[in-house]
Amino acid sequence: MRAAAILAALLLWQAAALFLNQRILLVGPVDVLKELARQAPRPDFWLTVWFSLRRIFLGFFLALSVGMLLAALSYRFKVFKVMIRPYLSIIKATPVASIIILILIFMNSRNLSLIVSFLIVLPVVYANILEGLYHTDGKLIEMAGVFHAGLRKRIMFIYLPQLKPYLISACTASIGMAWKSGTAAEVIGIPKGSIGERLYEAKIYLNSSELFAWTLAIIVLSISVEKLVLWLIAKSYSALTSEGRS
């Protein structure tokens, strides 16, 4: 069913491109795939992908780690939660374009996508993990207190299993946001060697085939990173379950 829906969308796209017959405005999926096939064997294509991939993924990973830590501290200390709430609210409410421009005032654009993706993902991770902590089964925590379970055991066998759906939800929601904000930052800041630079050049030279090809590459990268992260979470929880049984 999903394959049929994708095929129908591609056919509609191709029909629209043929009907419009303006390659500057819209190219079909066949032309996009040809352009991607032309770009892919070139070393500079993969260097560009690696430039953006490592920065956006690092921004996401840092936001995931910091967001979980801040959520844990907010859960444990109400004062801390009250203190950081204004900062997270400001980050969440500020438009991405404003964040990008403000960062460019203080630093160069080379690591812009890392910082922007970090700031965009952080509030999402924090809110999801904090919600998960508040929904942790109180009876399990009580039982851990009765049996004098240490903090490590409580984290591994109570909090982490209870947080699994919230962690998956946070990652699913935020990985796409990291890529969108990260590449938007690169288009504005134009760091040399980035995907954003290639998108900007394609727009300047009205090269729609290249513009769509790089957009497709971003979509594939975003989906691939999401699948990888979810697989790593599943493997980690599987290892945790095995350790709990042994």
Description:
- It is a single chain.
- The chain is mainly α and 246 residues long.
- The chain has a single domain (28-245), classed as MetI-like fold (Orthogonal Bundle).
- Helices cover 85% and strands 0% of the residues.
- It is globular, with a radius of gyration of 22 Å.
User: Class, according to the CATH hierarchy?
Assistant: Mainly Alpha
Structural class: mainly alpha
Global shape: globular
SS summary, helix count: 10
> Span from first to last CA?
42 Å
Question: Secondary-structure element order, as H and E?
Answer: HHHHHHHHHH
Tell me the name of the CATH homologous superfamily: MetI-like
- Unreliable stretches: none
What percent of residues are in strands? under 5%
The average pLDDT is: 87
CATH architecture heading: Orthogonal Bundle
Largest sheet: none
Strand tally, please? 0
Helical amount among residues, as a percent range? over 70%
Task: Describe the secondary structure blueprint for this structure.
Blueprint (H helix, E strand, L loop, with lengths): L1 H19 L8 H11 L3 H34 L1 H16 L2 H11 L5 H23 L3 H9 L4 H39 L5 H10 L3 H38 L1
Helix pairs in contact: 2-10, 3-4, 3-6, 3-8, 4-6, 5-6, 5-8, 6-8, 8-9, 8-10, 9-10
